[in-house]
Amino acid sequence: MSITVDQVTYAAGNTVIVNGVSISVEKGKVLGLLGPNGSGKSSLLRLICRLRQVRSGIIRLGDDDVSGLSRAALARRIAFVEQQSTTDTQITVRDVVRLGRTPHRGLLSSWGSDDDAAVEEALARVDMAERARQLWQTLSGGERQRVHIARALAQSPSELLLDEPTNHLDIQHQLDILALVAKLGLTSIIALHDLNLAAMFCDHLVVLQKGEVAASGTPEEVLTEDLIARVFGVRAHIERSAVHGRTHIQYRVS
């Protein structure tokens, strides 16, 4: 397994937010992390990249316990794309992506051809090479998310974490972003709210409820009418899409 979370618990003060969670992601696969607001999705992602400290349990990248990795080593291995990021600084698209090379450069090291190559490749992979000189502030929401992903790719990671990457985007950009991630070939965990998008683009799903795993498996195994009613509190009808062949959910209005 490329990412393994083994019986991990995390608490803020006396409030347990992640409670004994175990998940695993195979190399090169995309795992969708689902659950209502407050279920622990964002906290779990931050625990994996060590922005939060586990109370108990172990998180591994391959054979390596993340608690034993230096910050620089961890940043060279895993990239994290948060929901939203902004800046008032006048900065170009290329400059944003260049920030992804920080973990690969020492305090006294100069910018090299390897750094240039990583940045240009990252821009090309998200189809933003032609916008490289454009100011960040002039981009649309979907374009900014592409640049965020390019910055993450410039880190040359083997694992990619994304926290609600399609939040606040229109449907075209939601589809574009998730299709892009699915084609990257990186081991990825994506926290999502939209169950249909998760079914379309994820190989495996984990549903969290009140900080615990409520279900885990393929989209077909996980997204059942019973689970959707029990975890999300809505009635639904499940069918296989005639368009993409994956699970499709139709919600019932009471």
From TrEMBL:
CDD domains: ABC_Iron-Siderophores_B12_Hemin. One of its GO terms (molecular function) is ATP binding. Residues 3-235 form the ABC transporter domain. Keywords: ATP-binding, Nucleotide-binding. InterPro entries: AAA+_ATPase, ABC_transporter-like_ATP-bd, P-loop_NTPase. Gene3D superfamilies: P-loop containing nucleotide triphosphate hydrolases. SUPFAM superfamilies: P-loop containing nucleoside triphosphate hydrolases (SSF52540). It holds the Pfam family ABC_tran. It comes from the Bacteria. This is ABC transporter ATP-binding protein. It comes from Rhizobium mesosinicum.
